[in-house]
Every structure is written in C-alpha cells, then in structure tokens.
Amino acid sequence: MASVCILDEFEVHKNEKFLRIAEELKPELHTADILPERIIKTAENEKSELEVYEEESPDKLKEKHLNAGESVILDFGNHHVGYVTLDLGSFGSHQDAPAYIYLKFAERLDELGAETDSYNGWISKGWIQEEYLHIDVLPTKLKLPRRYAFRYLEIRVLAVSLKFSLVVNEVKAESVSAVSEKEVSMLRTEDELLKKIDAVSIRTLKNCMQLVFEDGPKRDRRMWLGDLRLQARANYKTFHNTDMVKRCLYLFGGLTFNEGKLAACLFLEPEIEPDDTYLFDYALLYGSVVLDYYRATGDKDTLNDLYPIAIRQIEIGLTYLNEEGIVPDHSGEFWCFVDWGEGLNTQAASLAILIYSMRYGIRLAEYMKDEKTIQWLTEKMEVLKQSAVEHFWDEEQKLFVSGAERQVSWATQVWMVLARVFDKEKNRKLILHTIEVNPRIRMVTPYMYHHYIDALIRSDEKERALYEMRRYWGEMIHDGADTFWELYNPYNKYESPYGSVAVNSFCHAWSCTPTYFLRKFYLV
Ligand code: RAM
Q1: What is d(CA 278, CA 264) in angstroms, rounded to the nearest whole number?
Q2: pLDDT, tens digit, for every residue of 40-71?
Q3: Which member of 67, 175, 367, 382 has the lowest number of beta carbons within 10 Å of its beta carbon?
Q4: Of the CATH numbers 2.60.120.10, 3.40.50.12780, 2.60.40.1930, 2.60.120.260, which one belongs to the domain with range 30-177?
Q5: Terminal C-alpha separation, the chain
Q6: Which helix (H) or strand (E) holds 102?
Q7: Which distant-in-sequence residues (6+ apart) come within 8 Å of 478 by Cβ?
Q8: Ligand 1: distance of its center to the CA of 124 in Å?
Q9: Number of C-beta neighbours around residue 209 at 10 A
C-alpha cells in the first residue's frame, strides 16, 4: 500500500488571468451515437481468463425476456467514453414489482469476471463501474447520470416477479471527446503490428482528451501533470490540438500553492481545484511540457507567462538537496513518483529528474535570453551531475544504485541516462548493460517504459527501442487491449498498485506515446 502524503499547510494562489485564459480555451466536446455490435456469451479458458464463446446480432436483444438471475452482455466493438441510455420494457402481465437490475461496465473482457464485492484496496471501490438499480415503472428510457469508460456492458436481472420479465429494447451510448480520430492521418507503414500499436495509442489519447487531458476516463478522471506531459507529446504528432495543451498548462500555472509549488494533479469539478499532493518529479517536469509546447507552437506570450513558474519548480526542487548535494530518500512516501514498481527506491532517480529538469530549464532560459538563469543553472547542474556519480555510481557493477540498501533498478538507470550524467557513448553502454543484467526491480507502467524507450533512442539505439515497443505495447494488444493500460507488467499480468486489477484503468493516457515515438523518430 502506498502512503499518501497530505500536506499540513495548503494555501492556494489563484492567478485569475491564467485561469481566464484557460477558461477561454475550454473545448466543445464531439459526440457520436454508439450502438452495441454484438451480444456475447463468455466463459473462462484454461488460463482463467474470459473468452467469448458465442455471439449473436444485437437485433436479438429485444426478443429476450430476462428473468431473475439472467443476463446479457453487450459488446460495443471498441473502447468508448460516454453516456448510456437504456430503453427498457416488460413482457407478460402488468409489472407488479420493481425490476431490480445490476449493470457492469468493463473496459476489457476480463473485467467482467473480476470479483468486485471483496475489493478492499487502498483506493476507493467507488471507481468500479457497476450500478444496482430499481426500476419502478416499465417501459422507460433510463439515461444513466454517470459517464462511463467501456467496451462491454453486462445487464443482469436481480429480481423481477413471477408475472413479468425484463426486455431490453435498446442500449445506446453517446461518446464524448475533445477530438475526433478523423483528424489524424494514417501511419505510413505496411507493418500490421505497428499500425495497430499506433491506432490503439491514438484511441487511448482520444478517449482521455475531454475538457482537459484526463489521466484515465474510468479512473482518476483528473489531470495529472506527469500524464499531461506525455499526452501533450503524443498530441503534437496526432491531433495537434495545441489549445488543449495551452489550456492545461495555464490551469496548472494558475493554481499553485504555498511557496509556488505546482500540484501533482487538478480536480475539475465542481470547480477546478488543485490536489493537496506535491510530487517532486511531476512539478519539475512542468518545464519540459512548457518547452515542448513552445517548440510546437512558437507561442512566445505563453512562454513569457509560464517560464517563471517552470524555473520556480527547479528552485523549489533544489531546496530539497542535503549537504551532500543529493535528494534525501523519500521512497516510502508518495513524494517522487517515478513508477509504481513494488519496493522501488526513488532516491537516485529523484536527483536524475532534478538534473533533467534543469537541462530543460536552461533551454527555456535560452529562448527567454535570460543569461543569468542560464549561468546559474548550468553551473549547478554540473555540480549535481558530479554528486550523482559520486554517490550513486557503482564502478564494480557498472550501474547506478539507489538508497541506503544500494538498490539497482531499471528506473534509476533510465533516468540517469536521460539526465545525461555521462556522455552519449557511456550512456549507451549503461543502457545496454542494464538490458543484459535485467535488474530485478523492473518497470511496470507504460509511463516508465516511455522513458526507457526515450533513453534508448537518445542513446542511438533506435532499433532496440522499436523492438522493445513491439514487445511491450504489442504484447498488451496480444492480451486484448483496445486502449493501452495504466499498468502492464509482462512478468505479472495481474499486478495492481491498488490491491486489485478491478480498479486499474485500462485506458490510461500515459501509455499512449508509441504514436509519438513512431511518428517522430521512425515513420516521419
Ligand atoms: C495514479 C494515476 C495517475 C498517475 C499517478 C501518479 O493515481 O494512474 O495517472 O499520474 O498515479
């Protein structure tokens, strides 16, 4: 279980001008009517996974008279985000009792079989997309108030009476997104797997692009800074909705707290509000989102507005350094995210991320022609690179270690490569050596895999990067992904940071970046 770090004091500073700019950029959502493509029946296979063993046309739906204990499963053909209306009726004598039904929405097939009653993890059970409803009067058109993220819907009758059965005349969904897939050109390749990986990435991104870049439309349905950074990158190469990135950058910048910190995430409703959670790495990475945005748009006004906030995050980050010039070990807390890997020590990666963000800060300062900042950041960055080597490099193992127990993890090596603590050739050797050693503390999120792929590409290992993308995201497709998942550990497919995969998100923004890599570095 993760320990959640709640700040004792939390004073929000609103920048009304920034919030106004963000409000003016609020998108209109595109909608589309979606109908089920088939009715399915499922059964467990020898690996205890659900499989479709029978299917019928959705036209057969209204012919079914459902009694207590009976159910239908509708397959909408792909992952959607939207609102659902059920057109329900009855068959038999007059409805002499409420119809009591259970609905379960699932992003992927296996979720339909997940045991939800016993879920007792550390994040809310409320995220599980299931409803228990009493329907007093039939026929009725029931528009469900929640927005769902789903491909499958199971409708189960818990109770009717001996005198009537439930009839589901029609189930309709209205999908919503700030963008439409029609806006994106096809990937120029004949390679079927790459085409599929690209399409699934785009679908993932699209379904997370709502009034802001959400992290996941099932959960947490809010905007996390670290997720935003990767979504924005994929978005430049696909939908190119730069207004959405600008809006999100201004929202974060317009809602800082205490000494000018950026929140790790923003809640959107009832009003936009920052979470009282600070993530060291996410706050520092804001500068890279600003730089990417400026490079994609040349929008100098936005750069002028947001530059001070990005630099402020670095200044705050530097206040955490101890007398040895390293970031103290906060690994037991939810303070520097890095990855969800069980037992991961994040101390060395925190320093690497600080160095990485300083390099982005220098690039921003160059665009701003801010000589003073260029100078102090460059000097300080060199000092930190040295302390990274002094404290965390293990010459014998030829790997970086982290924490008092000198843990060797994939994440630490990847972030040290991205921080460019060594020159390119030594970085290349480091990443290849990491692959060879295959440290036991592995990467488990597509977020961390993104950084691994980035590190390979920056080390001139493009072919290896492509191979790894095929292996990781390709394997997820092989395991049935219509949209990419929040967490995927090929070594443990049922891994969850929350206590059960029932609350994992299966359309998660930070996993959408293969389309960015493919379109930026390979098939341009
Ligand atoms: C989870 C969400 C989100 C991520 C944070 C750190 O709660 O999956 O996407 O950014 O963790």
Answers
A1: 5
A2: 999 999 888 899 999 999 999 999 999 999 99
A3: 382
A4: 2.60.120.260
A5: 43
A6: strand 99-106
A7: none
A8: 14
A9: 26
